[in-house]
Amino acid sequence: MITPYLVRKNVKPVASLREMDAEILAQRLGYTPKNKGEPLQGRILIAPVRVDGALATLEMIDEQGRKSALAGGAKRAGCWATGPLPERGRVVLAEGVATALSIAEALGEPVAAALSVGNLAAAGEAIRAARPGIELVIAADLDKTGHPHPEAIRAAEALRCPLLSPPADLLPGTDFNDLHAARGLEAVRECFAGVEALTAPMSREEALSLAREALMPEAKPDTPYPVDALGPLADVAVEIAHGMQCDVALAGQSVLAAAALLAQSVANVRTLDGAEKAA
């Protein structure tokens, strides 16, 4: 199968894809698939979209990259995958077919595609429900501002999973397939290297140990409170401690709490995975 669209995107075909001439496809479907009123033309790439394992619709892409879904089909919560998804381990969920193919080639593992940014959350929920042992990773496209698409960020927040996107120095509106074309598969692979530790399986004992360390840290009474780390609030904390005749640690924590309360209405917190959350 040598589909012009895949050649243009510099990715290899996989067994889960089909192709068909536009005229034959129209005869089989009983209508002509269109994109914004324009008929799909040439050799058409066909990606079967499944929901709960059952065929729900088709993603059809012509040689120019114009896309159309099967009339009467249902894409929500569905996905197409480059190959059978594992029952355990990592599953990367991308937006489009070419993006998923580039990531799959770079990582050497099956990758799923939600086929629209608005379907990422629903598709991720369906994949996780069918495979409770997997760890999801959202592969986001860059939006027109050069940041991960807001819908992808919301999907990662809803699914409580890591989110990765191409480097910010790429052109706005680009994706991992564009990164593949511009800098090669190694550049795509490097983007996912940092998420290995986040998605590596963790034993129950390791999880409990980390929880104990976070919730019940070892007390070190001889360690002074780092009041200087408060920056411009350090002098305020010292003055409060002196005036109230209390420990500087108590004053410092009070100052931090007051500052957080005042700031929460005017700024959001950006987490390490690029998501923004209300402070």
Structure at a glance:
The protein is α/β, with parallel strands linked by helices and 279 residues long. It has helices at residues 4-9, 22-29, 97-107, 120-130, 150-159, 176-183, 185-193, 196-199, 204-215, 234-244, 248-263; strands spanning 18-21, 34-35, 38-39, 43-51, 54-61, 67-69, 80-81, 88-94, 111-113, 133-139, 163-164, 268-270, 276-278.
How does this structure look, described?
The strands form 4 sheets. The protein has a 5-stranded mixed beta sheet with strand order 7-9-8-10-11, sandwiched between helices. It has a 4-stranded antiparallel beta sheet with strand order 1-4-5-6. A two-stranded antiparallel sheet has the order 2-3. The chain has helices spanning 4-9, 22-29, 97-107, 120-130, 150-159, 176-183, 185-193, 196-199, 204-215, 234-244, 248-263, and strands at residues 18-21, 34-35, 38-39, 43-51, 54-61, 67-69, 80-81, 88-94, 111-113, 133-139, 163-164, 268-270, 276-278. 38% of the residues lie in helices and 20% in strands. By secondary structure, it is an alpha/beta fold. Helix 3 links the parallel strand 8 (88-94) and strand 9.
